[in-house]
Predict the 3D structure of the following.
Amino acid sequence: MKQTASIISTYSADVMGVCSALFELGGMTIMHDASGCNSTYTTHEETRWYDMDSRVYISGISEIEAIMGDDEKLIGDIEDAASELHPAFIAIAGTPIPTMVGFDFEAVAEVIEMRTGIPTFGFPTTGMNTYIHGASMALGGIAERFVEAPEEDPEPLEGRKLRVNILGLTPLDFSVNGQDGSIVRWLEDEGFEVVSRWAMGSTLDEIRRSAQADVNLVVSAAGYGAARVLFERFGMPYAIGVPAGNELPGLLADLIRIKVQEFRNDGQNSATFESREISIDSGVFLDGSTGRDGSTYEQGFAAVIGEGVSSLSIASSIEMECGIPAKVLCATECPEDILRECDRMTPDEDDIIPELHGAAYVIADPLYKPIVPQGAKFIPLPSEAFSGRIYRDEIPDLIKDFNWLIQQL
């Protein structure tokens, strides 16, 4: 039965993705739900909860309020809290209960903004999608409402560093083990200047200045919504990929430089959307189980299960550095057209299991192990978004040390 997980776990829900994306930005986020979601989020899915303050609340909707539709109580409670806390913005995110009764998030957000004068978002999350859907929606909203147009034309590219925003940088994909800092150091070592980090390590004021950058680097699908909005508003090109590996980071850096230069040369009105988007593809497909040199791999392939952007980057590096065909089983929402012919969208347990047939290696969160076929070597790669805090101490920094993974193949 689709959308039922009888063996493995499930990913963090979209409402949690909203909270994670907005956690550091000085706003006030309200989960519209009866009770329970807030404690689940803070206990299992928010690694920053005990180290920094953030205003994440739950509405505590009652059964009678859900049935009778007493929206005024929610609006009044939010007004009272906002008058005391003075948040930079207000965000209301949904769960299954308001979804079932047809709660109008955008209309309620409009009323709250009119009464408080504080920018307010209504994100119609349902609790039925993954964190990627909610985080992408939330960061897209920030890009729409808060990023300011540059006061003057960008300086010529010649004689200065290319400026980069990092989009989709959340603990649900990168934990708090230093991977965010490793990505920043990689960019700086490659001669780029980091303008903002969406949304670990940057304030809302820094994110406001994101339009000063030349290009966006989308390191997880959570950043795709913001990338699309910044492209539509300012014509900013964006790259998609994680610098995980020994060869791939250099290729990604070169692609960023080339594409930015191509965009500047072509001009804003003549370049197509596709030409501005850069995705990582090593050019190795599983068709006929052949490698880069056309040889046949009898030992099978490596299956990488997880979020699409990071999984595709890992799979590409495995193919380039180990000569092992690798395919991505994307278990979350994913940007359009970045997956290769060999890759699959596998949102449900029943979608994943058949795709593992013939795999020599399976690289995934430890909670996937029960569905790994016999004969395949399982390589645990924990994900905060899938197993929460259980394996937090075992999450590697693949940007700094990809050889950890290579040694296990």
